[in-house]
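Table S7 (text form). Paired inputs.
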Amino acid sequence: MMLSSDAETLWPEVRGTILENERFWLGKGFIKNGLLPTEPGRFSTTDGSSSWKKIEEAWIEVLGKGWYYVNRNDELAVEPPTDRKDHDSSCWFYARDFTTAAINSASRERNVAKHWVRFRKLTRTKKMDPNAFLHRKVYNKCDHCDSNVKENISLLLLQSLAFLTMIYNGSKWSISTALLMKAKIIELLDLQFDETTSSDLEIESIEKTSNFFTKLSFLENKIATYVESERKNIKNMFSKVSTTCFCPRNDKSKIFGFTDRCNDLSHSFFPVVEREALAG
């Protein structure tokens, strides 16, 4: 990983997105308090798999370890539609209900007889902070690390998450599950440094004794053990990959849908820049 002393300026900014949801009631119009128990809450992930009553809770949950928001909560933006330029400032989409099919066919114009719910996308810019994973004096040394090892660790993180979502979600992964599983994987890495208590001597010792091939082998075993324990759990006995052993160095391209799942997660949820920061 190529990190310099001003590395913080190199990390890209990305947009986090949640949905704001409302339902229509006669005499009241569209309101957030009128959502049904079976529907997403006032604020939700874009797939509706997780919901929150307060917007502050939503932003905290979707942020992820190692990221921080560059704007305040009251500075978030409403994302306009991409299909037209003459959008109104509220940017609502109207649908029959909150099912996937209805959301995918949502309209910018409301059909009074058919559309009973509406939603809009709220975005907030976030940036990654490598200090959340490794002490600056350690990650500034990363130019000397074996790039192949880092690529392997990055791939390991992506494949383990993909495999876990296939255990729990089958053919279609949910953001709710992916958030939980990614948090667990990061927890297993145990990379957090306490900058206030770590002495220069301790950091220097880590720099000298770190063997990156040993680190890769250790992480492979640690993560594989966790993934295998989830696969063998009796509650997952009917999962899509219940009979497939998770071995980090085995070719998983033959698992139906696995490559697509990895590509999807890497593109929209677990980008390479984040995985490389975790790889150290």
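Next pair, protein 2 of 2.
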Amino acid sequence: LGRLLMVDLGEDEDKFEAFMIPLTSAFESLGQVLAAGGYNSEEVRKTVIGLARDLRGIAFAFNTKTSYMMLFDWIYPTYTPILQRAVEIWFQDPQVTTPILKLFAELVQNRSQRLQFDVSSPNGILLFREASKIICTYGNRILDVIVSKDQMYPLKLKGISICFSMLKAALCGSYVNFGVFRLYGDEALDNALNTFVKLLLSIPQTDLLDYPKLSQTYYVLLECLAQDHMAFLATLEPQVFLYILASISEGLQALGGNLNYFTDTMVCTGCCATLDHIVTYLSRSDKQR
């Protein structure tokens, strides 16, 4: 439906508002129910799942700057707190969290350069803040969830993998000046990165390559961090940095040198690029001394 709307939407905000009336009504009702504490109903749970899936489909279809901004202005700041509240309530239920996390992972995707905000616009920073809130809200809660080995991926690692994908898209989208966060004391970037570290340390190294989707999102994110946020990686505790180096070593064997490892060229080449960024950073730091 979103793609059909895109055919002749143009800059017609009235047409967009009319299209979104059912979702607007559903969100208004949901917000009132959650505020009143009435979230034990299965109907409410299904409403959250349906809304997140519908919105993700619309966000995927809206691949132009104009259409995306209509959607962003509609969802933020009115309805993003409702989705965050839903994650707080149902953080142990992947049927709820997965659609919401995938929605935010889609929103931060700079597909077709749709996230080209004006020079005076704070929207890039605001969007990253919302992504950071969702990552931290989910990540800090899922850490305490204990699941059996056979349910580890569907109940825990899948959500963590989507968080990695979301963070990578936000960090590499080229629509946020991350220097602004530290300059003005905004902790959104640090919170997201620190949550990433905590989530990473909660994953046994063997699981990083045992689950293909997790390995791909992790190593792509790590390459992005090594390329643009090496200063953060350099400040990590020694045991954390050693964990990351060990994961790179494991990833370099992902071409099938060991039959126990997942065979993936992208993981291996990503590890090579990450290692190159780390060595380059160390070389430059050494020369500056």
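Confidence is low (pLDDT under 50) at residues 257-261.
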